[in-house]
Amino acid sequence: MSIAEKSAQLQRLAHAQGWRCARCGRSLGAGAQRAHRIPQSVWALKRYGAAVIHDDLNVAAVCGNSCNDAMSFGPAGGMREKELIAVIKKTLSDKRRKV
């Protein structure tokens, strides 16, 4: 994902969230970040692919590092991870059908 795509995603997510942090609700400022629920680690990218990991449903706009860390399911995401992956894959599949 390019820097421009990351920036556009952050703007899109922040707008959708009313310019509030998805974790604590504080106003998003210059330090706003993209937080991945399923981490953008090498193992996750290999397992699920970039389209899933960087999908808007897996990413949220947050105010900073502590909220970013708190958003992550971590490497043992369990059922929350499985449910999110299923929703993202269905959404991606539906988008492909519409094209």
List the defining traits of the structure above.
two-stranded antiparallel sheet; 99 residues; 5 helices; globular; mainly alpha
Beta percentage is: 5-15%
Largest sheet: 2 strands, antiparallel
Structure classification: mainly alpha
Q: What is the topology, as strand order, of the major beta sheet?
A: 1-2
Cα(first) to Cα(last) distance is 21 Å
Question: In one word, what is the shape?
Answer: globular
Counting H and I runs of at least 4 residues, what is the number of helices?
5
> Any idea how many domains?
1
- The helix content, as a percent range, equals 40-55%
* SSE pattern, N- to C-terminal: HEHHEHH
Strand element count: 2
Structure write-up:
The protein has about 100 residues and is mainly alpha-helical. It has 5 helices and 2 strands. It has helices spanning about 5-15, 40-50, 50-55, 65-70, 80-99, and strands at about 35, 60. It is globular.
What's the SSE blueprint?
Layout: H1 3-16, E1 33-36, H2 42-48, H3 50-53, E2 59-62, H4 65-71, H5 78-98
Antiparallel strand pairs: 1-2
What is this structure, in a nutshell?
The chain is mostly helical. It has five helices and two strands; from the N terminus they run H-E-H-H-E-H-H. Strands 1-2 form a two-stranded antiparallel sheet.
